[in-house]
Specification:
The chain has twelve helices and ten strands. By secondary structure, the protein is α/β, with parallel strands linked by helices. The protein is globular, with a radius of gyration of 19 Å.
C-alpha cells in the first residue's frame, strides 16, 4: 500500500514509521531541521511498544515528488490544515482516501470540501507522542490506537485494506460505522486534557489526584458532551464520568501535545479545542463557562510565547 504522511510529528511519525517498518510504501512529508534529520539519519521512534528506525526514509517537503497515493494520512497541526490540503493535491488520485488523524472535530469536513466525500475518511488517533528532537519521535506509555471509517458508515474494501496493513504493522486499529461519534468521544477527552495540562503545566496524574482540578476536568468534559449532543452526535450522557474513570488508568506522566507547544513557545490549538467548544456553544445556546475560562487563561499564548513572557530563573 502506498501511504503518504502529511505532517511527520508525533502521530504521523509514529504510525508512519510502524507502517514503513512492516514493508508498506510510506512517504513522509516534513519540513526544516526535522526533514533534514530524517533524510540524513532516518526517522527514529522510541516507544515502549518497540523502538523503530526507518533509515533510509522516503522523506520530502514537496508532495509532487510522490504522486498519487492509496491513503493520505493528514497529521499536521490544526492551523496548517488548509495549507496541507492544498499541498496534498498531487497525492490525490481517482481512488485515493484522505484521512485526518488530527485533533478537533472539523478536519473531515475540511477534507470533504477540498476533495469530496468520496475521498474522505474520518479518523482518530489515540496516542501521546511528540517530536523530541529533529528526526526523533518519543512515544509516552503504550496506548497507540487508530480508528477509521467511511463518512457513510458503510464498510468498504479500502478501509479494510488499511486496517489489514496496520494490523500487519503491529498497530492497534479498528474500523467503525460511526466515525463521527468516535471523533467526538476523543474530542471530549482531548479538550479537557489539553486545557488542564496546559493550564497547570503538569501531567495528568497530578491533575486527577487533586479534587479541585479533577472536578474542573470533569466540568470541561461535561460541557463538550453537552455541545456534541446538541449537535446530534450520539454521545452517552455519562461519557464525562466514564472518561474520568478511564483517566485513572492512564500513565501518570501523560500530557497533551498542547502543553509541549506551550512550553516550546509555539502556537496553540486552543481556538479549535476549548475555543471551538465555546463558539459552538454560543451557536447552540449551550453554556460553556469552564472552557471560556481556559480560553481566557491561555489567550495570551495562542500565537506563541508573548514577547514580554519571562523565563523563570533556576
Amino acid at each position: 500500500m502506498k501511504i503518504a504522511v502529511m505532517g511527520t510529528g508525533g502521530v504521523g511519525g509514529y504510525f508512519g514509521a510502524k507502517l514503513a517498518a512492516s514493508g508498506q510504501q510510506v512517504y513522509f512529508i516534513a519540513r526544516g531541521e526535522h526533514l533534514e534529520a530524517i533524510r540524513s539519519r532516518g526517522l527514529q521512534v522510541y516507544s515502549a511498544n518497540g523502538d523503530v528506525l526507518i533509515h533510509p526514509a522516503s522523506a520530502t517537503r514537496n508532495p509532487a515528488d510522490i504522486g498519487p497515493a492509496d491513503v493520505v494520512m493528514v497529521a499536521v497541526k490544526l492551523w496548517s490544515t488548509d495549507e496541507a490540503l492544498r499541498d496534498a493535491k498531487p497525492l490525490v488520485g481517482p481512488s485515493t482516501a484522505v484521512v485526518s488523524f488530527q485533533n478537533g472535530v472539523v478536519a473531515a469536513d475540511a477534507i470533504a470540501r477540498a476533495y469530496g466525500k468520496e475521498h474522505t475518511w474520518g479518523g482518530v488517533a489515540n496516542i501521546a507522542a511528540v517530536i523530541e528532537s529533529p528526526g526523533v519521535i518519543r512515544h509516552t506509555g503504550t496506548m497507540a490506537l487508530l480508528t477509521v471509517g467511511e463518512l457513510t458508515g458503510k464498510p468498504s474494501t479500502r478501509v479494510q485494506g488499511f486496517v489489514d496493513a496496520c494490523t500487519s504493522a503491529g498497530i492497534q486499529v479498528r474500523a467503525t460505522d460511526d466515525v463521527q461519534k468516535t471523533i467526538w468521544e476523543k474530542f471530549v477527552f482531548l479538550v479537557a486534557a489539553s486545557a488542564m495540562t496546559s493550564l497547570t503545566r503538569l501531567p495528568l496524574g497530578a491533575i486527577r489526584e487533586e479534587p479541585e482540578t479533577r472536578a474542573l476536568t470533569g466540568q470541561i468534559m461535561s460541557e463538550v458532551v453537552a455541545v456534541g449532543r446538541a449537535k446530534q452526535v450520539q454521545l452517552d450522557a455519562d461519557l464525562a464520568d466514564k472518561l474520568l474513570q478511564r483517566l485513572d488508568g492512564m500513565p501518570r506522566e501523560m500530557v497533551a501535545s498542547m502543553l509541549g507547544d506551550l512550553e516550546r513557545g509555539n502556537r496553540l490549538e486552543l481556538p479549535w479545542l476549548s475555543g471551538g467548544v465555546v463558539e459552538m456553544g454560543k451557536q447552540l445556546g449551550v453554556a460553556t463557562p469552564a472552557n471560556a475560562f481556559i480560553c481566557a487563561a491561555l489567550k495570551l499564548y495562542v500565537n506563541g510565547r508573548p514577547a514580554d513572557a519571562r523565563t523563570p530563573k533556576a
